[in-house]
Design a protein that fits this description.
alpha/beta; Aspartate Aminotransferase, domain 1; Aspartate Aminotransferase, domain 2; 2 domains; 7-stranded mixed beta sheet; 15 helices; 15 strands
Length: 388
């Protein structure tokens, strides 16, 4: 029903993915497969809702009423089997800004914040730019799959100064969907040592190949009482240019403290389209998402087969979620900058540099496969040809 093979020209739209190629790669002559948005049209239902709202001539300050929170609650029940009271939902200006707000609300300068590396690079800035101590619990790769070093995690959590664990689930860039057993162990450690969990679950709707996302707050009442969950339809429906994110917590005290800090920073107003887009995407975008997931899974299988048959020395870390593939180039024996320049200058392909996700990302690159398959095929052929 939906055509994900259609190539859409994004030139002239001020697209971050295209217009910052010169700044990031030093060249505009690369196929951009880096920034985590998709090259697919948003669902037609969402486009229609935007167009209808835009026909009204006034674009003033906007509030998000009960349908906004109800759409979110209904989506969580449908997609994640999580019963959310609409009163637990608070709008946020973005997942990363909401993490900053939470760090400011629930810790003090010098306090420790645990992150699991390699990880989405803004996590580092959220902690360090706000004068908190960065505690890096490095994930361990075993046979192409990343696992948590729980002994180290508990050592960090046990420090009296540690106040927050900032979790990424599903994890970006290693594409893990943490299991119930892993989440329960995280919960037990954090509860034992009085560490608050901030759960970035923005990729939760994009699980793949039968994997199921478990919202941290859905584990049990104790876990729900010790966390804030951060979500958005932005990655799911390719609407990241709008403010559509939100925070969920059943702990009234935590939600009240979050809201107070957000209001104090004057970051609570949002976008004139945010409510209608969120409601429409969640209420009317279910079939579109099913077809999107099938297409992304097809792209991933295509990449795996192509690399296996045509590009020696590159390993694909098996993805459990997201449209972002974590590629291991270590067998090529290149220094990180050499690898990056080779892909840019020889292959003319722009991938995300693995080292931007932390020291553990050296030797890796991140490939965004949320593009028409013909574009993915062209990029892979250019990499293969550059090695001949």
């Amino acid at each position: 029903m939906y055509n994900f093979d259609r190539i859409i020209d994004r030139k002239g739209t001020n697209a971050y993915k295209l217009d910052l190629r010169e700044a990031y790669f030093g060249s505009e002559d690369v196929i951009p497969l880096w920034v985590a948005d998709m090259d697919f049209a948003a669902p037609p239902e969402v486009q229609k809702a935007i167009q209808e709202r835009s026909q009204h001539e006034i674009y003033g300050y906007t509030v998000r009423k009960e349908p906004f929170r109800k759409a979110i609650a209904d989506w969580q029940a449908y997609k994640h089997n999580w019963n959310v009271n609409p009163d637990w939902v608070e709008f946020s200006p973005g997942v990363v800004p909401a993490l900053v707000i939470s760090v400011l609300a629930f810790s003090n300068p010098g306090d420790g914040v645990i992150i699991q590396t390699p990880v989405y690079y803004p996590f580092y800035h959220v902690v360090e730019d706000n004068d908190r101590e960065l505690l890096k619990n490095s994930l361990v790769e075993k046979n192409g799959r990343y696992e948590i070093n729980f002994d180290e995690f508990e050592e960090m959590a046990a420090k009296p100064s540690t106040k927050i664990f900032m979790m990424c689930n599903p994890h970006n860039p290693v594409s893990r969907v943490w299991t119930k057993e892993e989440l329960l162990r995280i919960h037990e450690i954090c509860l034992k040592h009085n560490v608050l969990v901030l759960a970035d679950e923005i990729h939760s709707d994009l699980t793949l190949f039968g994997h199921k996302h478990i919202p941290f707050a859905s584990l049990n009442e104790e876990a729900a009482n010790n966390c804030l969950v951060f979500m958005a339809p932005s990655k799911t429906f390719n609407i990241a240019g709008f403010s559509t994110s939100y925070v969920i917590s059943s702990n009234e005290k935590l939600l009240r403290a979050y809201r107070k800090k957000q209001n104090g920073l004057q970051m609570h107003m949002g976008h004139v389209f945010s409510g209608v887009i969120t409601e429409t995407a969640y209420n009317e975008g279910r079939e579109w998402l099913k077809e999107l997931i099938a297409y992304i899974e097809g792209n991933i299988q295509f990449v795996k087969d192509f690399i296996q048959n045509n590009i020696k020395g590159v390993k694909v870390i098996e993805p459990e979620a997201t449209y972002l593939l974590w590629l291991d180039f270590k067998e090529w024996g290149m220094e990180q900058n050499e690898l990056k320049r080779f892909l840019i200058d020889k292959a003319k392909v722009g991938l995300s540099d693995g080292s931007t996700f932390g020291a553990e990302g050296k030797g890796y690159m991140r490939l965004n496969v949320a593009s028409p398959r013909s574009i993915i095929e062209k990029a892979l052929k250019q990499i293969a040809d550059s090695r001949k």
